[in-house]
Specification:
The protein is mostly helical. It has three domains: 5-91, membrane protein fhac (Ubiquitin-like (UB roll), Roll); 101-249, no CATH class; 264-335, no CATH class. It has helices at residues 5-14, 36-43, 55-63, 111-129, 147-153, 156-162, 164-173, 177-186, 197-203, 209-228, 239-244, 250-263, 269-278, 280-287, 292-305, 310-318, 322-330; strands at 23-29, 68-79, 82-91, 135-136, 143-144. The strands form two sheets. A three-stranded mixed beta sheet has the order 1-3-2. Strands 4-5 form a two-stranded antiparallel sheet. Strand 4 (135-136) and strand 5 form a beta hairpin. The protein is globular, with a radius of gyration of 20 Å.
Length: 335
Amino acid sequence: MRLTPICFAILGATMLPAQTLRIGTLDFYGLHKVTESQVRKALGAKEGDAVPASKGDAEDRIDRITGIVQSHLEVVCCDGNQMILYVGIEERGAPHFELREAPTSDLHLPEEVSSVYRQFLDRFQAAGRRGIGDEDLTQGHSLLADPATRAVQEMFPSVADQHLAEIRAVLRSAADEAERSAAAYVIGYATKKSAIVDDLQFALKDPDAGVRDSAARNLMALSVLQRLHPDSGVKVVPTWFIEMLNSLSWSDRDRALRALAVLTESRDASTMEQLRTRALDSLVEMARWKVLNHALPAYIVLGRVAGVPEQDIQDAWSRGDRQTIISAALKKKPK
């Protein structure tokens, strides 16, 4: 199984000792007509139980509930020494995040690019086992706190610039998702950041979750650069991140939320309107998630959609009053 960087971070930094993984928190999204109790019954697991042994079997049981088109289980670390299990639901007639068909060309990255990327994954995995995960995004790409991993990352700009045409072709057209995932990561280090925005936004609709994750991470870094240096020429459009808030994948939603927490700081009127019309219900349910650091980005974006001042958003969060912001946002819901 191919592991993306995010998987390495989870497995390396926070993997529990060899034992049965148990559910510390169970949460849901996409439920509007179908009830949580129906899904819990089909899931056959609750807080304190072992994580379902077969993800596919559990999803099949949930998919048989009337009104459900598809379900998706995702295990995220950690709630204390236990896991967080998210159950995503797509109901019939609900907003749908459409992914692109898988490309079919027999393309591969140049060996120089692949070699540096493999070195990066090895160093990143080792850093994850030591619990080192902090990163600096102010240069428009990730530079991790771990010196060994950062040293490899600092090799990427020259490699990306030298092989940009080949990397771009692989990202858009290669049949092998591992090749596309590596391309989505490395292309983010190209020196001319404004030239890669369209490639990364294209990759947000890739059928492979690892490709989407790498693209979203790089666009997050570009969003930071855009905020810090408005004259950089970088312009990240929030549209596809807004659409990702309706994804069946928790990872898609989490990445989109973290990018939108940056992209909505200016409270651009068009972006606020897109969020109200395309993703308000999704924002509300995510702002209610039980794990606070997962709910916080949705809560912040929701407060901005509602037009609440930043200090008031922070104050309500500090006193544990999420409902005030949620209620204010729901008043903005299009009729």
